[in-house]
Every structure is written in C-alpha cells, then in structure tokens.
C-alpha cells in the first residue's frame, strides 16, 4: 500500500505538470521543450522560501507565480522563431536553467542539492503521511484539471486553438497573438511551478539532476502518447508511463537486466504508439 500511494503521488504531480505542457504545445501550438525549467524554478522557490520561514501556502503560490514570470521573457526572446527553432530555443532555456541550478552554489547548493525541505504546513495541519500527501496532491490535480477544462472549453480555449491552427488568421482578426501566447505559456509555467513545489515538499530534497534532459523527454512523451489537446489523454498517458516500467519490479530478473529491460519496455511502448496511434491515444490534432 505505501508503494502504491507513493506511485500515485508521483502520478498526480506529473498530471499537473503535463497538463501545463499540453496547454502550451497541444492547445496553443507552442513547441516548448523548456517546461522542466519552470518545474525546477517552482521547486527551488518553494524550498528556499519555506526554509526561510515563509508559510507553505504562500511559498506554494510564489512557486507558481515566480515560474510564470519567466514566460514573458521566454516568449520575447523567441518571438521571431517558429516550429523546430522554437523547440530548440526553449530547450536551450531549460539547459540554462539547469546550469543555474547546478552552479549558483550560494543559493541552490549546487550539486549537493537542498535537503530538509519541510512537509506542507497548511494553517497548522502538517501533511506528513503518504496517504495525506496523496489526498492533498490529488485534490490539487483535480482542481487543476477542472480549471483547465473550463478554460479550454471556453471561447478563450477556441482562440488558443485558432493560434495553433492558423496564427496569421487570428492576427488578421485583430487579436493580440503575442499576448495570448504569453498568457498560455504563463499558465503552463504556473502549473509547472506548483508541481515543482509539490514534488520538493514530498521528497524533502531537491538537486539539479531532477531538472535535466531525461525529465524533459518524459514529460513530452506523456503529451505525445496521450495526444495533443487532450486532457483525458494526458491523465491516461501519465498513469501508463509511470506504472508501465514499474511492472518489471515484480519480475524475477537480475538487477543488471532489470534496468535496461525497463528502458526497453518504455521505448517499445512509445514506438508502438507512434506507429499505430500517431496522434496519441486520444489526440485530435497533429502538430506540424
């Protein structure tokens, strides 16, 4: 039971993270590969603030807000690039953020990381046990899902989809495309920031290795497998991609074989999805 609870805490956290990325990539058409930078910014912000004595609710909100503040900067720096070039530019943003986490030793403690991060204290109630953290994280994920569903089902969501499909046509209708892109990326960054806060306070330790290339690959894989512009797909893909490699833990294999086998199973699953469901499990659009 504690093992399953641990896994579902991770699943709920990744759902929040992946929903934000799907909002920017799937619903708005922004090939953002720097999403993991917002995750790290949120984690470090929340950890440092709570260790400095700031109450968790304020640190939690600050994690999302501070991450979101980088969205206008990123959009401004990449305003003249599209498609693959945007993907590479945002990937560079993620790598720069990782370098900052690794080398700003006076603030982040560099490769040593930050230990002793306190568990969430919400107005006197400390979320200490795994089951309590599971319920807390699932509640946050449910609220996020509902809000993003309302957003994407509204006229505003239709406008974001129009930017993804034909940015020039939206501009010709007199809409401020850049502002809409910034808003979409800021919401995605906010969600990544609060996901970073949740993960930091659950593990009670963070270091730069958690915000590097492998994490980027996993989050993007969730969006691709679930399907672009599909909230249901994001939830299902997160559950599948977290639980699928874990199934091999119950197979009697030597440790030297178990690790590569998990990676192989993960790769085969992704390959099958790309071959037979190129739009993902529930996707309705293709990103060109």
From TrEMBL:
<feature type="transmembrane region" description="Helical">
    <location>
        <begin position="185"/>
        <end position="204"/>
    </location>
</feature>
<dbReference type="GO" id="GO:0005886">
    <property type="term" value="C:plasma membrane"/>
</dbReference>
<keyword id="KW-0472">Membrane</keyword>
<keyword id="KW-1003">Cell membrane</keyword>
<feature type="transmembrane region" description="Helical">
    <location>
        <begin position="6"/>
        <end position="23"/>
    </location>
</feature>
<feature type="transmembrane region" description="Helical">
    <location>
        <begin position="133"/>
        <end position="151"/>
    </location>
</feature>
<feature type="transmembrane region" description="Helical">
    <location>
        <begin position="58"/>
        <end position="78"/>
    </location>
</feature>
<keyword id="KW-1133">Transmembrane helix</keyword>
<keyword id="KW-0812">Transmembrane</keyword>
<protein>
    <submittedName>
        <fullName>Branched-chain amino acid ABC transporter permease</fullName>
    </submittedName>
</protein>
<feature type="transmembrane region" description="Helical">
    <location>
        <begin position="216"/>
        <end position="244"/>
    </location>
</feature>
<dbReference type="GO" id="GO:0015658">
    <property type="term" value="F:branched-chain amino acid transmembrane transporter activity"/>
</dbReference>
<dbReference type="InterPro" id="IPR001851">
    <property type="entry name" value="ABC_transp_permease"/>
</dbReference>
<dbReference type="InterPro" id="IPR043428">
    <property type="entry name" value="LivM-like"/>
</dbReference>
<feature type="transmembrane region" description="Helical">
    <location>
        <begin position="264"/>
        <end position="282"/>
    </location>
</feature>
<feature type="transmembrane region" description="Helical">
    <location>
        <begin position="85"/>
        <end position="105"/>
    </location>
</feature>
<dbReference type="Pfam" id="PF02653">
    <property type="entry name" value="BPD_transp_2"/>
</dbReference>
């Amino acid at each position: 039971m504690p093992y399953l609870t641990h896994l579902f805490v991770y699943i709920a956290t990744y759902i929040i993270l992946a929903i934000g990325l799907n909002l920017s990539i799937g619903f708005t058409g922004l090939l953002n590969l720097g999403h993991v930078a917002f995750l790290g910014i949120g984690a470090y912000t929340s950890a440092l603030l709570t260790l400095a004595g700031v109450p968790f609710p304020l640190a939690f909100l600050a994690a999302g807000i501070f991450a979101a503040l980088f969205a206008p900067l990123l959009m401004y720096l990449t305003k003249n690039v599209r498609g693959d070039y945007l993907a590479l530019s945002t990937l560079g943003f993620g790598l720069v953020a990782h370098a900052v986490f690794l080398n700003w030793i006076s603030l982040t403690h560099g490769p040593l990381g930050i230990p002793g991060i306190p568990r969430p204290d919400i107005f006197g109630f400390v979320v200490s046990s795994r089951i309590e953290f599971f319920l807390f994280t699932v509640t946050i994920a449910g609220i996020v899902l509902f809000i993003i569903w309302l957003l994407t089902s509204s006229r505003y969501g239709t406008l974001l989809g129009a930017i993804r499909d034909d940015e020039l046509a939206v501009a010709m209708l007199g809409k401020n495309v850049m502002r809409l892109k910034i808003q979409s990326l800021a919401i995605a960054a906010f969600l990544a920031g609060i996901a970073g806060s949740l993960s930091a306070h659950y593990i009670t330790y963070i270091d730069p290795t958690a915000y590097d290339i492998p994490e980027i690959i996993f989050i993007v894989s969730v969006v691709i497998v679930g399907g672009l512009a599909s909230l249901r797909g994001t939830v299902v893909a997160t559950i599948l991609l977290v639980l699928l490699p874990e199934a091999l833990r119950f197979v009697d294999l030597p440790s030297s074989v178990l690790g590569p086998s998990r990676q192989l199973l993960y790769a085969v699953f992704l390959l099958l999805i790309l071959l037979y469901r190129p739009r993902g499990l529930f996707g309705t659009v293709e990103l060109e």
